Amino acid sequence: MSTSTYYMFCFLIGTATGYWALFVTMASESFGTNIRATVTTTVPNFVRGAVVPITLSYKSLEATMGNINSALIVGIVCIGLAFVSLFFIPETFGKDMQFTET
Questions:
Q1: Is 94 inside a domain boundary?
Q2: Three-state SS string across 37-82, please?
Q3: pLDDT for 52-85, tens place per residue?
Q4: Higher pLDDT, 102 or 64
Q5: Per the domain annotation, does 3 fall within a domain?
Q6: Do residues 55 and 31 both lie within one domain?
Q7: pTM here?
Q8: Does some domain include residue 101?
């Protein structure tokens, strides 16, 4: 393996790890201190559980549209939902993080 390929792999792994850390941090900051740990461990499980309907959607589209088009449609829908969700998450900057959920 060349040096540039190795560095590219390091960059991709670092990007994925940073994304995961930011994802878990955003989830935990959205809830009060009494359930923050529960949310931080539960949200990644929801993401893992989302693999089932995503795979079923891909497989149902694959029979009629082929591999490329079904992957493109499922990918666009997933990324679209992610951007819509990100748009509606309230900003936590300056928010008191020591609140309790009621």
A1: no
A2: HHHHHHHHHHHHHCHHHHHHHHHHHHHHHHHHHHHHHHHHHHHHHH
A3: 999 999 999 999 999 999 999 999 999 999 899 8
A4: 64
A5: yes
A6: no
A7: 0.68
A8: no
